[in-house]
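Hi R.,

Here's the chain you asked about this morning:
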Amino acid sequence: MATHTEPQQTYTVDELAARAGVTVRTIRFYGTRGLLPPPDIGPRRVGRYGPGHLARLALIEELQRQGMTLAAIERYLEQLPPDASAQDLAMHRALVATWAPDASEELTRPELERRAGRALSDADLDLLAGMDVLGETGAEGVLRVDLGLLRLGLQMLDVPIPHETILAARAVLVEHTREAAQELARLFREEVWNPYREREADPQDPQHVKAMKSLSAHMQPLVVQALVTAFQRSLRDELRAAFRAPGEDGALSP
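And here is the predicted structure, written out as tokens:
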């Protein structure tokens, strides 16, 4: 039986600029720099952009907030898988955003729904809370909303997987990424911070501390990229191995 696939929403360059909060000139500039793929050319030779372009613009904006130069952003984007989907890019942005200064806002439920562009049920709010996208503020009817994670959280609401499974998967990821973060912190401390302190006469000098914090901040997006890319590839390989067609070597037995 043939399956029906909903067509992806597309945008003209003006519509994309409005959705992304940038200028048309910026979009064209990113295109010339190779930061943004060219649009599909439709009737009357009008360029049409898709969700992937919107997600890439959001990622570029987040990397700029981290203080990365355009040259550094180019190198970052070049390392992404060529078939990275809008969801993949949103995941990168969400994880990169966790390194940024607090980007939360306090919103009422109606304000959150306007920001989300949709009505949110109590079950939706419970899932978003379980993913740390939102939390209580102590003020009645006011929620703390992590803007960096909001878009990804909203996308997860439409995934055809039980909410309990999504939260269980998140718990697994949090546990193991915490272990990875601890190991990376140990590596950074032993291989970068301690040798630096030994070389400097006054390692507590504010300028030296500021320099080390700056180095750490610039490393973080690159570490996130490596982590997300490695995870995506490993998960893809594991799923392919688990769901091979019956009769293939290594296929699961019924």
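One quick note: Residues 102-160 form a domain with the Phenylalanyl-tRNA Synthetase; Chain B, domain 1 fold (CATH 3.30.56).

Cheers,
M.
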